[in-house]
Write a structure and sequence with these properties.
Rossmann fold, alpha/beta, 32% helix, 356 residues, six-stranded mixed β-sheet, single chain
Length: 356
């Protein structure tokens, strides 16, 4: 069974059991105030007056001989889009499953909107969150409006089906069967199912994986509108441009741990450089000769490709070309680009995200 199917079954999102799930999902509507404690790590981003929507401390999750989450501490503030970035296997989805109350941690605590899972308030808490799964599997013969009516029936309050359809721009597809939707339209429908309860907190687990650029932009617009209305969004992704565009703060994960935390701009600034020079040559160059070049801060090698993190490209590039000539080598390829979150990950781990 796929990871998405397991999550869907855990939530009761199975069409055949929908009526039973609906009858169990009789929720109260108490709105418990969220905590007002503040993370010292994020104090410059979130002052003490900003409430905490989600907090976890010391999370550990083990599967057989693998520790998927290894002592994780996080605080997500109300009204922010918080990104969990990392390669496949970094522990992002396992972390989100614990935060959503779908998976129990071996160690640690989770506080969500001022409440804890596995208490008498679980049902009320579920009404206050929305969950977009990595895979949301709906019957292909069901129409968009039928699917949303089902999900709306799980909650005592929320948006109308027509409102949600308009929010995700599926008006022209309201009577189309799920099997006839494009990949981007199916993802928008999945987000619509998560939005139908008018949640305070919306979990998005790699919402744009596999989508074309236009479909990705459409989903980004939905996310931005939800945040503008004051919603809080924990978002997992391995697309660095997505995190840069959407997230107020990001935590970069690797091997179940947070290895960097801050705003996208802060993390990129931590490189101490603005530009990346990537090149390949006919004859290998000595590492020491490159790291000692003026304005070069860091060297990373990937196969035959060298990547230099540089503070001033106008100084570093002429020096590099002179060094290549001095070592009697020749350029094969040469590209430059602005430093990104991908470069931050490479600097921290020595690997590209897609290598991981």
């Amino acid at each position: 069974m796929s990871q998405g199917s397991r999550k869907a079954r855990a939530l009761g999102w199975n069409w055949r059991t929908a009526s039973a799930y609906s009858s169990k999902f009789q929720l109260s509507h108490d709105r418990t105030p969220v905590s007002t404690q503040t993370s010292t790590v994020a104090a410059t981003v979130a002052p003490a007056s900003r409430p905490v929507a989600l907090r976890c401390s010391g999370l550990v999750k083990r599967f057989a001989d693998v520790t998927a989450v290894n002592g994780l501490d996080l605080e997500i503030f109300a009204g922010e889009c918080f990104g969990l970035l990392g390669p496949n296997g970094a522990g992002k989805t396992t972390t989100v499953e614990i935060l959503e109350g779908l998976t129990a941690a071996n160690e640690g605590t989770v506080e969500l909107l001022g409440q804890h899972w596995n208490t008498s308030g679980d049902r009320a808490l579920r009404e206050r969150i929305g969950v977009q799964l990595q895979e949301t599997q709906l019957p292909e013969k069901v129409t968009v409006v039928e699917a949303l009516r089902l999900f709306r029936s799980f909650y005592r309050r929320g948006h109308s089906v027509d409102e949600v359809i308009q929010t995700v721009a599926l008006e022209e597809k309201r009577n189309a069967r799920v099997g006839k939707l494009s990949g981007g339209q199916k993802q928008r429908l999945a987000v619509a199912c998560a939005l139908v309860s008018d949640p305070e907190l919306l979990f998005l687990d790699e919402p744009t994986t596999g989508l074309d650029p236009q479909a990705r932009l459409s989903l980004w617009d939905i996310v931005e509108k939800f945040r503008e209305r004051g919603g809080t969004i924990p978002l997992t992704t391995h697309y660095m441009e997505e995190a840069t565009r959407l997230c107020d703060r990001v935590a970069i994960m690797d091997h179940g741990k947070v290895i960097a935390l801050g705003t996208p701009a802060e993390l990129i600034e931590s490189l101490g450089a603005d530009q990346i020079i990537e090149f390949s040559v006919t004859n290998a160059l000595a590492d020491e000769s490159l790291t000692s070049l003026p304005a070069v801060n860091h060297l990373h090698k990937r196969g035959e490709v060298y990547a230099l993190t540089v503070a001033e490209i106008g100084i570093a590039l002429p020096a590099l070309l002179a060094e290549i000539k001095r070592q009697q080598s020749e350029l094969v390829t040469l590209t430059t680009h602005q430093a990104t979150l991908e470069d931050v990950f490479v600097s921290l781990t020595g690997r590209m995200l897609r290598e991981s």
